[in-house]
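queue> pop job 88
queue> type: inverse folding (structure -> sequence)
queue> payload:
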């Protein structure tokens, strides 16, 4: 059974609270701690629940080789022509920055956490007492890393990009077996940016049913449309890359949200969550005053006692103080037993009984 919510520091991920919006800093600090702290401050002003770093070095990610499979040759990639090592050298967050960044998060009332990419990163983050962990899509099949993180017994958020059902089953089992009790799976399309057509949001409820976990969205599309739509499908967490301004450049800036866009996401995802409500038919209390504006049957011409109701003197109009329109056909041809002024709602009491 899926728990109503998961506690992360002083915040919750769950169905009983608005979506937990995560601003992914990634390498958008552009190798400036001052800028990194400004990103945290802008994210807090935008209203996010958490901000996420990535904890690695170029050497823990790959080898310093410039050719072959260590070079990015996909012409559709933002990073085409660069080696993996060069990219990670530019994008990584210096480990000595983590503590001041997390401290600023605590001061501003948002959850600071990170994605570790190897076991040394987990040990380092444990020394900083992070409240939860994120596993990136590209590491969701790294079972030793999954077990290492799960052994901390802290909440885990795992992106599912590229993973098959069989791979996800292995990942979730490994996390559970190693001690993870609180788990969120993020639907993710691992292209940068992603297109709405490749987002396949209908996977979200299926993912939830398969694994019995909370499900969120790691969204690389532009704008807020896909993320807001995902709320209607049950997501409880939304992650988007974040920067101060795309024009400033940076490894992920092209598909990152700016502060006003992030604020819009926070506001609109909460509105979508509020709009879910519950299954309900009939009027709610707020609609009671509107009932009088329904159509009903009104006498629309002055009538004298003994006259017959016709389509000329009886109509279905607003407001709704007369008999329901469904009686119109049955009442035509009936006689009124008293004088009636135009604009009078028709009731059974003014009708002469039929023989």
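queue> result:
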């Amino acid at each position: 059974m899926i728990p109503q919510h998961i506690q992360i520091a002083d915040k919750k991920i769950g169905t009983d609270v608005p979506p937990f919006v995560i601003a992914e800093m990634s390498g958008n600090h552009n190798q400036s701690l001052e800028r990194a702290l400004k990103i945290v401050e802008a994210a807090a002003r935008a209203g996010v629940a958490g901000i996420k770093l990535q904890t690695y070095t170029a050497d823990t990610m790959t080898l310093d080789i410039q050719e072959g499979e260590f070079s990015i040759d996909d012409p559709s990639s933002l990073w085409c022509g660069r080696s993996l090592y060069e990219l990670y050298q530019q994008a990584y967050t210096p480990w000595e920055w983590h503590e001041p960044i997390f401290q600023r998060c605590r001061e501003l009332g948002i959850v600071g956490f990170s994605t570790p990419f190897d076991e040394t990163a987990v040990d380092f983050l444990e020394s900083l007492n992070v409240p939860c962990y994120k596993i990136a899509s590209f590491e969701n099949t790294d079972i030793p890393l999954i077990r290492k993180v799960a052994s901390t017994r802290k909440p885990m958020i795992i992106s599912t990009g590229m993973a098959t059902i069989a791979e996800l089953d292995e990942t979730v089992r490994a996390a559970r077996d190693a001690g993870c009790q609180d788990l969120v799976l993020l639907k993710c399309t691992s292209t940068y940016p992603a297109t709405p057509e490749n987002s396949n949001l209908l996977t979200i409820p299926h993912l939830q049913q398969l694994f019995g976990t909370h499900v969120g969205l790691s969204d690389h599309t532009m704008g807020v449309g896909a993320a807001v739509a995902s709320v209607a499908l049950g997501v409880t967490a939304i992650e988007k890359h974040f920067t101060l301004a795309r024009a400033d450049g940076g490894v992920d800036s092209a598909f990152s949200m700016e502060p006003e866009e992030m604020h819009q996401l926070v506001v609109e995802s909460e509105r979508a969550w509020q709009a879910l409500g519950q299954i309900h038919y009939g009027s709610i209390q707020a609609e009671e005053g509107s009932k009088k504006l329904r159509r009903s049957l009104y006498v629309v011409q002055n009538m004298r006692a003994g006259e017959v109701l016709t389509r000329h003197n009886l109509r279905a109009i607003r407001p709704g103080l007369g008999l329901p329109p469904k009686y119109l056909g049955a009442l035509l041809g009936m006689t009124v037993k008293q004088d009636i002024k135009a604009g009078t709602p028709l009731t059974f009491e003014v009708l002469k009984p039929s023989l």
